[in-house]
Amino acid sequence: MNQFTFNVYKQSRVLWCLFLSPFLFIGSILIASHFNSFFIAFLLFPIFLIVLYYYVVGRIVITVKDEKLNFEWKRKTLFNYKDIKVVNLEDIKVMVIDEGRLLKKIKTFDRVIYINNSKMGSRDAFDFITYLRKITKPYSPEIIDSWDEFARKGYLKLAYKLTNLVLFLSLIAILISILCNAFKVQFLFICLMFIPQMLLHRAQMKNKLKE
To answer: To the nearest 10°, the Cα dihedral for 83, 88, 94, 95?
Structure first.
């Protein structure tokens, strides 16, 4: 028997947190202004973020025994995840793995098990992925990444074109702001946050389109 423990996150909960975060931030400011102390805002908002992290990230224990995967969640005081039924190794048809160390999904003939292991607190995740690939090899499951899955849904070409358009418009906006002497440091920080990531995604999509 082999056992692996690591952190995972739920994408649906991430979306909820992205939606709620601005409201929580504004709420912190309003509460702080009511008590005339912005120290409260600096105290409350990190607390909200910790609660959201607790809501999003779960810790899962996966045990491999008798040609089966058994899933057990570390129980929480609140915000527990739904139980995952046992998976037979021979039933695994597709594994979606990104960067060789991020297991996104396990697909069988009748269901999809979402894993989404986190990069933080997941020392066992890489070992589990390596071991899973080894023990499922006799059953020849297909191993793909998220871009492959995106392409199969017919979205890759459109996403590539939209990424090129956004990058082009961003560069035009930067040039115009520089020529008009309206370029600000804050704008530079925003560009540094999203442009390199978009360039990386563009390169990944381009490679997939060549395949």
So the answer is: 60
Lowest-pLDDT range, 79-88, 125-134, 197-206? 197-206
- The type of residue at 67 is E
Average pLDDT over residues 151-176: 79
Both tokens assigned to 29: 């400011």
Q: Which tens digits make up the pLDDT trace of 144-163? A: 988 888 777 777 788 888 88
Exposed, middle or buried by CB within 10 Å (0-12, 13-18, 19+), for 148? Answer: middle
User: What pTM was computed for the model?
Assistant: 0.69
Which tokens go with 71? 């899933």
Asked if 84 and 24 count as a contact pair (C-beta separation under 8 A), the reply is no
CA distances 33 to 23, 28, 198, Å, are 15, 9, 38
Q: Are strands 92-98 and 142-144 parallel, antiparallel or unpaired?
A: parallel
